[in-house]
Amino acid sequence: MIKNTKVNATILIIGNEILSGRTQDTNTSTIALWLNSIGVKVNEVRVIADIEDTIIDTVNLLRKTSDYVFTTGGIGPTHDDITALSISKAFKLEYEIHKEAFKILEAYYKVGEFNEGRQKMVWMPRNANLILNPTSGAPGFNVENVFCLPGVPSILKSMLGGLQNRIVGGKPILSHTISLRTVESEIAKSLAEVQDNNKDLEIGSYPFFQAGKLGVSIVIRSEDQFKINKCIKEILNFIDEKKIEVVVR
Predict the structure, then answer these.
(1) Structural domain of residue 201, as residue ranges?
(2) Burial of 103 (0-12, 13-18, 19+ CB in 10 A)
(3) Measured CA angle at 209 (ends 206, 211), to 5 deg
């Protein structure tokens, strides 16, 4: 069990379709928001191709430097779905039919539909723990601290709830957003001073364009609501002094 309250994770997006731009990644946001809610901070996100050696090397690096690694993509029925095989090799485990996964999919499909291509989805590292899939049947799996999820966003999202009891997090990471009708240069110095006064929380500024006008969203993140409230007060003080319009307080 992870005892340190500062628990971290890396998200590893696997797929040529992401790198080519054909598919837009939304899984990073889904996983990161869920992890933050259970006290796990995402330290890094990587996107890599469907290349066996690349997957093996990257997983072996990240599983040693992160408390948790979440992979997405590459566990489907097609020829380029090689994540499960690569994870087997990374952990030096036999790649074999997972008997429980086989039973799940055999029951899920109608007679004659559980063909050779679909049976590829039950090949996993030996003794892998299943991550149940309430949407389309085919389970994901984890080996030690590496959790392998599908790339289809709606299916991935439906599977996260089943991991709640397997992830040991710290305190939930709270956030508050203040959106302003201004530009970053106008608040940069004042915001830096607030950050200096509140070194143990995270303050980010993010420009946006809405209704034909520029704006900046200030996002404050911390495990401690009291510290967030203190920071909000300091930010609103300089906003009032500068007479900046607040869009969302």
Answers:
(1) 174-248
(2) exposed
(3) 145
The residue with greater pLDDT, 212 or 24, is 24
Domain of residue 200, CATH code: 3.30.70.600
Q: Where do the DSSP E strands lie in the chain? A: 7-14, 40-48, 68-72, 95-97, 123-125, 129-131, 140-143, 146-149, 174-181, 202-210, 213-222, 245-248
Is the domain of 158 the same as that of 219? no
Chain segment 197-240, per-residue pLDDT in tens: 999 899 999 999 887 889 999 999 998 999 999 999 999 999 99
1 within domain boundaries: no
Return the bridge partners of 218, or none. 178, 205
Same domain for 179 and 139: no
CB-CB contact of 37 with 29 (8 Å): no
CA–chain centroid gap for 54, Å, is 20
Average pLDDT over residues 27-37: 95
Assess whether pLDDT exceeds 60 at residue 3: no
Whether residue 2 lies inside any domain: the answer is no
